[in-house]
Amino acid sequence: MAIFSKKDKIALDLQAISTLISEGSVLEGNLKAPAFARIDGLVNGDVTIDEGLILGEKGEVKGDINTKEIVVYGTVNGDIIASSLEIRATGHITGNIKTQNLVVETGGVYNGNLSMHQGEKQKQLQA
User: In terms of residue numbers, what domain contains 48?
Assistant: First the structure.
């Protein structure tokens, strides 16, 4: 299983980006996108991305994030709900995290509560 999840994480970095908030841009309000997105600017609001999000080194989100996969190189001030979360060496997160898979590179910073769950199969077994 680890081999497949590692391939999925590499694939996120290689996905075609359908939504881009470029460096220097400021978005006031919530962002919702159907596929993959990259944020290199500032978003003041909640972010909901159906597939995956890359938060670049200069990227900042002041609000909650909900997505399947996320790679954080920048700064998040808010809660994150994702199946897979990677905090890179330049990443900073302040807020609560709910995820199934978590990777933190040396230098990555996280302050908040962490809740990890096994996913739907585990929930069905317990029912």
Answer: 2-126
